[in-house]
Specification:
Residues 1-23 form the signal peptide. The longest helix has 27 residues, at 2-28. This protein is of the alpha+beta class. The strands form three sheets. Strands 1, 2, 3, 4, 5, 6, 8 and 13 form an eight-stranded antiparallel beta sheet that branches. A three-stranded antiparallel beta sheet has the order 7-10-11, with no helix packed on it. A two-stranded antiparallel sheet has the order 9-12. Helix content is 24%, strand content 20%. The protein has one domain. The structure holds 2-acetamido-2-deoxy-beta-D-glucopyranose (NAG) (3 copies) and calcium ion (CA) (2 copies). The site of one 2-acetamido-2-deoxy-beta-D-glucopyranose has 4 residues, from helix 2.
Length: 324
Amino acid sequence: MLYHMLLFLVVLVLVEHLTHTEATRDVETPQNLTRTNFEHLERLSNRSRYVARSCKEIRDRYNEQEDGLYYLTTANGMVYQTFCDMTTAGGGWTLVASVHENSINGRCTVGDRWSSQQGNNLNLPDGDGNWSNRNTFGTAEGATSDDFKNPGYYDIKAEDMSVWHVPNNFPLDHWNLAAILRYHTNNRFLRLYGGNLFQLFKHYPVRYNIGSCSNRGPAVPIVYDHGDRETTRMFYGLKPRKEFEPGFITFRAINNERAAMAICSGVKPIAGCNTEHYCIGGGGYFYPDQCGDFPSFDYDSLGMGQGWSASKEMTEAAVLLFYR
Ligand SMILES: *[C@@H]1O[C@H](CO)[C@@H](O)[C@H](O)[C@H]1NC(C)=O
Ligand SMILES: *[C@@H]1O[C@H](CO)[C@@H](O)[C@H](O)[C@H]1NC(C)=O
Ligand SMILES: *[C@@H]1O[C@H](CO)[C@@H](O)[C@H](O)[C@H]1NC(C)=O
Ligand SMILES: [Ca+2]
Ligand SMILES: [Ca+2]
């Protein structure tokens, strides 16, 4: 009994101490916080006056050079908010989408919006795919915690792309620093394909049984902003490393089993066609056990970077897609 009373007292004293220090910390700052926050918020809120269709236009017309959220307007007048990277290689990059794997063991289950949420289904070869429609989902601030797609994906006419791999659930103001890999293209390849991924995937449909492995879409050279060819190679499994060449972004890869994937991030398939272990997104039908937003990144040793499986870093990072 005495022991229990003593214990209770100790806990009481500890709790007192904790709440006291918490309290003093809270009391010292709020005025200052409130004041600086208000000015800051007013400045951010003032951005809603900008009229622009892309982050590049905001940079060019309003000389904004700060990364963050801005308002954009589509050709039809739809207003939406997204993240602008105003610093990388001159800035003006619009975040249009993110591909996030919420359940690597879930094979085309809930959350697999960039492949199929309707199960692995031979009767849905493209699953009415989100790679080539005007459906939108998610939020910019949530882009590392779930899939994101905004109207810029189909509305913006761009020339180049940038890609960030950001660890899941990281908050927006730390994306740039936290990213394990960042790169961009600089040869204006999107001009050849209608100016965005919506148009590019019209040329190269992401659907089951569209052709053999050799019928893949373009492989575009990249410039690294964080990481390099060697770190890119190491993010994927030992065996895929022999089948791709790092330093590229590739569109609409096809594997041995005739499933189409949307993007091979950082690499170009050159042999073997086992692209389900290192390319993301896809249609509605894969060989059993491959279907998913990160199709078969977990094949033989989840997150170990051994065998065919991608590293933990890669498997647990969202892929953010930007246009400029
Ligand atoms: C508010 O914080 C800034 C630095 O963060 C400091 O320079 C300033 O003196 C503070 N103002 C008040 C009223 O505490
Ligand atoms: C926001 O815009 C208003 C009206 O143009 C202006 O008076 C105000 O100074 C702006 N606020 C900030 C923090 O820039
Ligand atoms: C496309 O996204 C929508 C919205 O999240 C989702 O309901 C639908 O299932 C997705 N399409 C596929 C094929 O997963
Ligand atoms: Ca999944
Ligand atoms: Ca997903």
